[in-house]
């Protein structure tokens, strides 16, 4: 914000106490400042130091804000490109050596769209997801069956929105978040409901949105910006939320989550543009609907699309093998399973068309396909740019065991994303392990208190023995209170503290996790069983997570 050089535009600053300003008898000359008479009349020009300082600070703040937005855009762009690159669809192309010609195998958008109160209708041929997004003014719900490509469609839309944001600086920045990580406690939800009820007719005293705290926490955790910066972005409408996994949260919380999302679309916290993705069955079972302007339903592939796709990538023999099996055709109409079929077809050791066809139900056929994919990826040869990536290997049995436990814990907590620092006492299975964990945690707490109390009582009584005795009694008292009130399911925020390391030691001793968990997770990421975004890990698909969760623990 530059100050005008035109002297006619210069205005006197507001008078402070004890100072009068006489506008009528004073002529303001550019670059001039004077004091006249005993009444201390002040004359100022545009070189006023305070004005210049404030101008400098505002300009600096504006520049900093722009730089923050650019950094966020780069981080989101990197995340979207990485996740698309590591998708199963892209992996199948890489495996066939046609990565450099993706335009040859792009699938058209095969979907139904519903706008407002109009009935659903097929999307015209060659319509892009961006055109659908614009037609509903940026408020879109993406629905589909498991494996239909909801997340991929979400990422593809985010990719083109990022390009738009680059070209239009005032356009909001897309931010990808997964709703399965929303874990608001019951007390906060009840307080929010009561507050909404009490302030229903009071527009000037509305409670903060239920999702606000979670939004700030997730963006801060993923991208590293301060709460104040994120809050400013939200207030100024500079964020475009892409909320995936509405169906992946706790079933009892999904209705409340929909209410909380609708709250973001109203009032002073209004998000004018917002995208949500969910499985259609879980969404339709809810008693409430999202107040978005339009929805898109991703349909299964047609037989012609499957045949054309396989023909394009020179795998028409797959089509010839499955075209007469209706159940297998129904399965590969789901894009996820078509991509897995392409990836595993050439692995004769773990995949056989005849065995696949012998499976009785569609579920058994899906399990066989997921098992074949799992075994192929475990034996996958890695040529990575990472240093020493192949020096650290894990046996098949240990890898399966660790992944089974991870998947079971994620499903138990209704989550799809995993952070190492979120490991807590709920991972412990036996009462003995829980008791040992609580005892050692209490001892750490008691030792800490003992040191604090000793220094206090020594300063008060100046007697070594009295200080030790009182410190011991007070520390033991508060330690017992801590022991009986200790919640083992609470997350340990600092993964480098003693409590966290001791918990991981117990889990490692019991064979639940490897000692170097980050190295193991990266090992599985290289084998396309997991994806990594920042410090977070997730299975390559929720169906693969469910597949591992249903497996028994390995010996």
Characterise this structure.
The protein has 555 residues and is of the alpha/beta class. It folds into three domains: 75-298, Rossmann fold (3-Layer(aba) Sandwich); 303-378, no CATH class; 391-549, no CATH class. It contains 21 helices and eleven strands. Strands 4-3-9-5-8-7-6 form a seven-stranded mixed sheet, with helices on both faces. A two-stranded antiparallel sheet has the order 1-2. α1 (49-85) runs antiparallel to α4 and α2 (88-95) runs parallel beside α13. The radius of gyration is 30 Å and the shape is globular. Mean pLDDT is 79; it is low at 1-45, 56-60 and 94-107.
Average per-residue pLDDT, rounded, comes to: 79
CATH topology of the largest domain: Rossmann fold
Q: Structural class per helix/strand content?
A: alpha/beta
> How many structural domains?
3
Q: What's the CATH H-level superfamily name of the largest domain?
A: P-loop containing nucleotide triphosphate hydrolases
What is the CATH class of the largest domain? Alpha Beta
Provide the gyration radius in Å.
Answer: 30 Å
Q: If classified by CATH, what would the architecture of the largest domain be?
A: 3-Layer(aba) Sandwich
Percent range of helical residues: 40-55%
- Give the number of DSSP strands: 11
Low-confidence stretches: 1-45, 56-60, 94-107
What separation lies between the terminal Cα atoms?
A: 68 Å
Number of helices: 21
Topology:
Layout: E1 34-36, E2 41-43, H1 49-85, H2 88-95, E3 111-115, E4 121-122, H3 129-135, E5 139-144, H4 150-167, E6 173-178, H5 186-198, H6 212-223, H7 227-235, E7 239-244, H8 254-264, E8 274-279, H9 280-284, E9 294-298, H10 303-312, H11 316-322, H12 326-332, H13 335-344, H14 353-358, H15 362-378, H16 396-412, H17 431-461, H18 464-485, H19 498-509, H20 517-526, E10 530-533, E11 536-539, H21 542-549
Parallel strand pairs: 5-8, 5-9, 6-7, 7-8
Antiparallel strand pairs: 1-2, 3-4, 3-9, 10-11
Helix pairs in contact: 1-4, 2-13, 10-11, 13-15, 16-21, 17-18, 17-19
